[in-house]
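Notes, p. 3: input format for complexes.
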Amino acid sequence: MNDTVIGVETRRVEGREKVTGHAKYAADNHPEGMTFGYGVFSTVASGKIAGIDMDDARKSPGVIDIFHHDHFPALFKVPQPMGSPVTSLSGAIVDERRLPFENDVVSYAGQFVALVVADTFENARAAAYKVRVRYDAAKSQVATLAQGVKAAAPKDSGKGHRRGEPESAFDGAVHRVDAVYTTPVETHNPMEMHATVAYWEAGNLHVYEATQGVTVHRNTLARVFGLTPDQVEVRAPYIGSGFGAKLWMWPHSVAASAASREIGRPVQLVVPRAQMFTTTGHRPETHQHIRLATDAAGKLVSIRHESINSTSFTDGYVETCGSVTSSLYSCPNVLVSHHTTQVNRGTPTSMRAPGAAPGLFALESAIDEMALAAGQDPLAFRKLNYSQKDESTDQPWSSNHLNDAYDQAAKAFGWEKRDARVGSMREGTELIGYGMAACNWEAFRTPSEARVSLNADGTATVICAVQDIGTGTYTIAAQTVASITGLPLDKIHVKLGDSSFPDAPVSGGSWATASVMPAIADATRKAIEQLKGYAGNPGTPFADAKPDAITLTGGNLVHGSNSVPFGEVLSKQRIASAEGHGRTEGNGNKEFSFRSFGVHFVEVRWDPGISRLRVARVVSAIDVGRVINPTAARNQVDGAIVMGLGMALFEQAEFDERNGLPVNNNYAEYMVPVHADQPETQVILLDYPDLHLNEWGARGIGEIGMTGLAAAVANAVYHATGKRVRSLPISLEKLMDVPATRAA
Ligand code: MOS
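Output follows (744 residues plus dioxothiomolybdenum(VI) ion):
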């Protein structure tokens, strides 16, 4: 293996395409004769459609057709997934099982109730505003998690864990914490809108889609339209991010594809930003009850983490808040449970570090409270309760360098300068708070395929259906081929994001790198074998050599004193390319528990005079196995820190308690961090290879940085202000002292 490539800071190989505007995103595609769809979206959260008045809309310029529940083709529902669909290459998955326009039932505001197709985007939108829908609105609706819990007992949604006797251990313990933490609805808000461009050719469906998984999206559309997967092509060469919202198909993709078949022309359908708060998933609201207890020495003796999340009336999405809780700390008595409650919102979905992001806000806030209750430093407390193995499965860790992460980050941050007394650290008018929290994410490896060709012109081509969602997968694919062939990166063509390429997993779960590299390596090695076979043909300089004795070095075939560029050997024989098809399986290793570890240290500054809270510094140390491209890897953690700040301080999609309507479904009122909010960040990548997962020891880095950050901020805020905010976001009014009522 060539270590001048793997682990080396590498600029994105597709960077030029992006900065010059040549990279085409879904809605940049305009096939000949394309039309435009624009949705009509429900303005009630619950009820039935009583009637649709389309007279004005039909007369509007350029209108081709208007689809709705009485005018839409019959399609097939996506079956319940079987086996492990999330990581399978043949599965079909949706979060919202209801088909668009399936019937007259409305179960959330912002649900598609009609689709106008017209000759231009402007005409489609203008006509859509003229469609008048009458509703039989339900007398009441469920607008919030709290209302849901009042309306019906939450449903046990499995994925729980129990060991020992957590109840009695808690009751008999020396130090105890018992608190409820909540997180609001958050929305993914990728820069690139959800979009579909669909057209049909000879009974086959072609789709450009903003998706994190072309292979599964293809499988899913095939099920819906009753086609075989080879009759559907889904392309997503570039994605303007997804954060989980683009993992599985949403109604607009079906709507655009069906409309295109009905009118016999291509249809482009972009989901407006407001409906990206309703009909393309969100992180659900959570309510988390945590009870912790220690003995006199501060050793954890009981952990309970019981969560409820909101889901829709159509689907049972589970936010696995306790997924990390069962294994992060050593403790003999543990209970983790997950419940769901139905609300009149669209179906939730995975959002960057699903489960762990809200879960570790709660757990790592509670651990801070527990450390203080036990009279300990929060870092020392975590080290004291470090778990030598995964106690939830009784497996050893494949690789765990959490204590090293703690030490390196604490040193870089200057944790030893922390004065433990609340509100004791000041500079000018500002109170300074230091906080920390662990981060954690499961490490996966899924099946994948890839094809590599070594071409007569001396270049190599790798094709694989996997997508680059902005994370650097093009570069990692090129690095893999470069490290095995010795070719420079600029001689390697990478083609991704097309379902007609060899099947690959979704770009999600932080598993693309760990899953796709082995398939690409397998394909590369097979291509080299074929190349050596061609090299042994009569008339070549290697005709007398055994294939095993020939090596490929720096792009040259070498045997003894013979060294010839491999392209020459192929072109002399008029052979276009030597090829290999790679296929590798998922992680079959049952011996170990595979997780990634890390820690965030955060400094906040609170100026009580003007009620200003700033996150000034973040130092993170992350243990994700071998780092393939440190440039892109650090970029992922930096990005996760920004998103984590949003979660901690700003993000909250609100729904009117009286009618379930979204309130702040736009970029102006759904607050996210801006440049002025950015702290100084330092990301330390530990880089210990985890060779139990793949030959490089790479785990995956997309999500872990998102976990724990909000807790580290909340813990720092407590240290500065003495206010324990258990309900995200940490908005300013939660820190301001309520003015005493003045006597009249
Ligand atoms: Mo990630 S939530 O698996 O895109």
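Residues 445-584 form a domain with the Aldehyde Oxidoreductase; domain 4 fold (CATH 3.30.365.10).
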